[in-house]
Input
Amino acid sequence: MRVAIAGAGLAGLSCAKYLTDAGHTPIVLERRDVLGGKVAAWKDADGDWYETGLHIFFGAYPNMLQLFKELDIEDRLQWKEHSMIFNQPNVPGTYSRFDFPDLPAPVNGVAAILGNNDMLTWAEKIRFGIGLIPAMVQGQKYVEAMDKYSWSEWMKKQNIPPRVEKEVFIAMSKALNFIDPQEISATILLTALNRFLQEKNGSKMAFLDGAPTERLCQPMVDYITERGGEVRLNAPLKEFLLNADGSVKGFLQRGLDGLEDEIIAADMYVSAMPVDPLKVMLPGEWKKLEFFQQLDGLEGVPVINVHMWFDRKLTDIDHLLFSRSPLLSVYADMSNTCREYANSDRSMLELVLAPAKDWINKSDEEIIAATMGELEKLFPDHFGGSETASLLKYHVVKTPRSVYKATPGRQQYRPSQTTPIKNFFLTGDYTMQRYLASMEGAVLSGKLTAQAIASSAEKANLTDRIQTPIQTATNAATA
Ligand SMILES: Cc1cc2nc3c(=O)[nH]c(=O)nc-3n(C[C@H](O)[C@H](O)[C@H](O)COP(=O)(O)OP(=O)(O)OC[C@H]3O[C@@H](n4cnc5c(N)ncnc54)[C@H](O)[C@@H]3O)c2cc1C
Output
């Protein structure tokens, strides 16, 4: 089958990759001149990379790790010590660590929590542990049911002291969905905690060894094209062309630079666009269907990724850091964490600014000035005194609508990969899968979409050569 896919983010590329494994021929249309969507990156005039987001790969990402294996690029993941490191706002320039010993789960997680005495008292740890019992006993069913509460409401309901939220979970909420605990659904935090506590290496983190566009997306494109597929950049989907019965007749690709629009005809069609542009593009006829109306319940959340190059080394920490700053979420000195960005003399900080709703319309200069203010607290030895580090250059990347905002009640609006339109499918981190809106979620959704296409083809009796490879992918997806 020929399958047209709009969007070359991780979900679209994953869908195309698994379709080629099953012997199909995908054609991927990407609106921009760069691969990767929310993992896209660019090189500046000096040859330095800057990215849409600071991206962390977790041990609890089975589909992503399998994809690295299948592409034979596992050596590109730079695994860090099994720890979580938080700044201590009360003692600027110092850190508090949760170190996971080399023991089976959940013992290693419990030991990491009990071993940290800077952030939580014993009474708070015990109250938190008791609060988590229903999630541990009842599992995913309970986790899903808690989508009606925000994390703050859930903590209150479980009688967990507010200080636990302040110390640990503001940072975690911002890292997971770029919003605060009063806004984020309890399901998001409980899902992450479940994975982190149930899998020995669930919370272990890796950085990619370079820019995701080159080091992860390009190998996917090579894999797809070597097997007969095609990936086009600068190829925006302009319109869904429909048959009389409402099914898709073709994708109309917008012609750029004076070129004519082009009709892309295929056997099956996939939207791998984020939910926000998809909603805008839905044909009027489809908008009447409840399935597509549910998408109105989802909307991307703003976030900003800041890159700052300094004239000296600010830290030698080779890990992700939770800033616990009101302005910032997580950050890392990429000159330590990432092989391609390595520099033994100068730091390059990549910092996520969240929540970003009050900042997304501000100028880069205002954003950098505010971030510098925070850096004085994070690195007091290097700013404010006589030995002040100089900022050499910066890049600010704003994403006004990034992953869907996971406020309470959103789970019910996440669509399946199959739609009521027989030859039209959805893929993307926002579609229903068990891994939140993340790189893992995007890759898994792509795999699930490829599987759904294969089984619908099977039903339509289009082909009988697809079963074995797709079956393998499915088993891995649900393992
Ligand atoms: C700042 C930031 C930090 C993050 N940190 C992490 C992290 O540490 N770990 C993690 O797991 N996840 C992280 N994420 C989330 C992760 O990046 C996303 O969940 C994932 O990349 C989404 O992939 P996707 O394919 O679903 O969507 P997207 O990446 O948004 O891909 C959609 C694609 O569709 C294209 N498109 C749109 N309209 C059209 C059109 N008309 N025609 C053709 N193409 C179109 C877009 O250009 C884009 O390439 C982060 C995200 C951000 C923004």
Observations:
- The longest helix spans residues 439-459.
- The chain is about 35% helix and 20% strand.
- Residues 6-12, 29-32, 37-39, 52-56, 236-237, 272-274, 277, 303, 305, 352, 399, 402-403, 428-429, 437-442 surround flavin-adenine dinucleotide (CB under 6 Å).
- Confidence is low (pLDDT under 50) at residues 463-479.
